[in-house]
Amino acid sequence: MSEKTRIVSALGEQRLLLPFLLNEALAANDRAKYRLTLLQTARARADSPDGAFSDLRTERLACGIADAAYDDVVSGSVRRDADTYLLPDASELCAGLHADVAAMLAPLEAARVPEMRLLQKRLEELSLTPWHGADNSITGNTISRLAAGDRAQGDSLHLLIMDTHKLLNRLQAGIATEGIDGAQTYGLRADGRPLVSAFMKGVNRTRALKFDHPGLDTTATRVDSKLVIQNDLGTTDAHVLVVHVEGMCVTTTYTDNHLPRLLFFQAMFSGWKVAWGDVHSRTDQTFADGVYHLCVGTYTASDKADLKAYLTHLGSRLVFLIDWNRARKRLQLLVPRTEALSLLTWAAENDLGHMAFLKAGGERMIFDALQFVAGGRLTYGVTLAELLGIEAAVSYLRFILRACTQGLLGKRPLALIRDEARVELYTYYHSAQQSLLDLASDHGALAVEIATSIRDGLLTSSRPETFPRFERIGRRAKEWERKADELVIRARELAEQSEQAEAIQQLLETADDIVDELEEAAFHLTLLKPESMAEEIRLPLATLARLLVEGTQEYLKAIENTRGIHRSGSPDDMRDFLASVHRIVAIEQQSDTAERAVRKALVDSAEDFRQAFVIAEAAKKMESAADALMHTGMILRDQILGKVTGS
């Protein structure tokens, strides 16, 4: 016998009364939770009288209590001694709380639910000790005993309310008399059906995005003048959504044991003028982290069409709450927290969601793809953002969220979706590496420009009238040095996001010494007086400059060969790369010899000691640039060989 049939057969003459009792019970559940929250907030305010606390007026109106005197309970509460509190109308508050729980039990008794006897006994045992004193006092221990959520520490009224509510939900589904687009309803009036249909239109539009995960079952009824819609968001007890519609006003009460998800839920209504009350956090050891959070949002529609549109939007957002926290944690293994949250927001805004990503393998699928495109050379613990950079990582994950959702909805094989993830990542991964090499290439090109300018200046400086050219060379060298510094700064910024950029940062910081030394050499040449430079001095100095041009060009060739090594691992590219590095080493040795030749020429031919000093300093700076060039080349060699050998 089905539960529905068993219930109906057991009711007899009471069957017509049960929907009314059930509606009263659901309303009493809202009131009981409000009263418990009021007790806890009043105690907290009495303990910290200088703190800021909500009067819970929004919550009172949402649960249907008309008495505005409750709004003064929090502000009027004081602590009399270590564990005794005086609350305005504490006796009425406790009596109402007891009556609410009794009202919740009434439909279970009418339906002869087997668990009813145990629930009734629990209420009797919890009521053996008076909850308040004759002077409207109540102890902190009593408040804790009523609101406690840890079953290991004994029973509490809060636990009784939770257990009763579960049975009420089951009973509600069992007596439903009408289905509206998948919602189980009873006791609706004609004007309520279109509103339930509007809500379900949204639920059903995105329902497929949860795939086989439980959740989104909807029940609806009418309590007095209010349409009440409840949705089963999943398997977590604290994850509850209750919607009240009265006239043009929609009041949504949402509870969640994950505060970030609650804030995410609120953010999904940024385009609607929803008035959100304060978020209240409550200790409860039965939930994750021992706490749950509650918020109430109110939307007033302009007309019937706007009311239906809002309900549709509300229903369509619920699927994005299912397993949201698990998806957030998985994404945070790939990108920083802020970007993970933005990805979940983007997926919801585009009606894609995150469940397909989880079903396809989540972060494990991404790590497998990374190992594939990197040839198995990834360092353990490196994130996607560190490898690609944050912007590229977010762009790639958007592709993944879309591809997983569209693929699974289209019944495509998981293996095909994972292959597509690899192919797309290959493009991102190698584009990131090429972009980093662009920094090194641009930086190397600036070194070539300065070295070439110095060489050309020396080759044409045999006559006094050509000496002003060194002024132009010095100015240009200073500008090129500034641009090189900007590239180093950019590499440092990227190094905070990418392991690959750390290697480029190290390379550019060493290579920047090349540019600095060459700029210093160009500066010293601007100090030369417009007199004829002896050929015995100019020629070895020009030879040294020529070697620097050749060395910087070989360095630039080595960087370009690195691109080919990254792309295909070509043996030809590797041979050319190593040849350039060894040529750089040889040029350093030749530069040392050339710099000594300049010194010897100065001793033999210089007539002005000031000119001799300037030329000697310029030669020294060029030889230092050759040293920096060799060090940079060796660093690049070690980086490339380290990747090739996997060390």
Put simply, the count of helices is 23
What is the residue-mean pLDDT, rounded to a whole number? 86
Morphology call: elongated
Q: How helix-rich are the residues, as a percent range?
A: 55-70%
**Separation of the first and last Cα atoms:** 69 Å
Characterize the largest beta sheet: strand count, sense, and whether it forms a barrel: 9 strands, mixed
How many strand elements? 12
Structural description of this entry:
The protein is of the alpha+beta class and about 650 residues long. Helices cover about 65% and strands about 10% of the residues. The chain has helices at about 5-10, 20-45, 55-65, 75, 90-110, 115-125, 140-145, 155-175, 195-205, 260-265, 305-315, 325-330, 335-350, 355-360, 365-375, 385-390, 390-410, 415-460, 470-495, 500-525, 535-570, 570-605, 610-645, and strands at about 80, 85, 135-140, 180, 185, 215-225, 225-230, 240-245, 250-255, 275, 280-285, 290-300. The strands form two sheets. Strands 4, 5, 6, 7, 8, 9, 10, 11 and 12 form a nine-stranded mixed β-sheet that branches. A three-stranded antiparallel β-sheet has the order 1-2-3. The protein is elongated and about 115 Å long. The model is unreliable at about 1-15 (pLDDT under 50).
Summary tags:
single chain; alpha+beta; elongated; disordered N terminus
Q: Can you lay out the helices and strands and say which pair or pack?
A:
Layout: H1 3-11, H2 18-47, H3 57-63, H4 73-76, E1 78-81, E2 84-86, H5 90-110, H6 116-126, E3 137-139, H7 140-147, H8 157-175, E4 178-180, E5 183-185, H9 193-206, E6 217-223, E7 226-232, E8 240-246, E9 249-256, H10 259-267, E10 275-276, E11 280-283, E12 291-300, H11 304-317, H12 324-331, H13 337-349, H14 355-359, H15 363-373, H16 384-388, H17 390-409, H18 414-459, H19 469-495, H20 499-525, H21 535-568, H22 571-605, H23 609-645
Parallel strand pairs: 5-6
Antiparallel strand pairs: 1-2, 2-3, 4-5, 6-7, 7-8, 8-9, 9-12, 10-12, 11-12
